[in-house]
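Quick review question:
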């Protein structure tokens, strides 16, 4: 499943399945690396809604934004 980084929404969740590994502020957006399900995932959000390294979050993906590709 392919999903663009800006189409992954994050929700604060102290028991969430993902951990923010890094956060880089790029002006109006923040690029974050999450560790989720044994893999790293890139997420982009508006800088005002950014999380910090070590935060636990719950990624939410709208299926309409996903695309299946053959591996």
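Suggested answer, residue by residue:
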């Amino acid at each position: 499943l392919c999903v663009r980084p800006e189409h992954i929404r994050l929700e604060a969740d102290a028991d969430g399945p993902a951990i923010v590994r890094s956060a880089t502020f790029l002006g109006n957006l923040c690029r974050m690396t999450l560790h989720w399900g044994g893999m790293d995932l890139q997420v982009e959000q508006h800088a005002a809604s950014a999380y910090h390294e070590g935060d636990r979050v719950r990624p939410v993906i709208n299926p309409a934004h996903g695309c299946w590709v053959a591996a």
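Why it works: Strands lie at 2-3, 8-12, 18-26, 29-36, 39-46, 56-61, 66-67. The radius of gyration is 12 Å.
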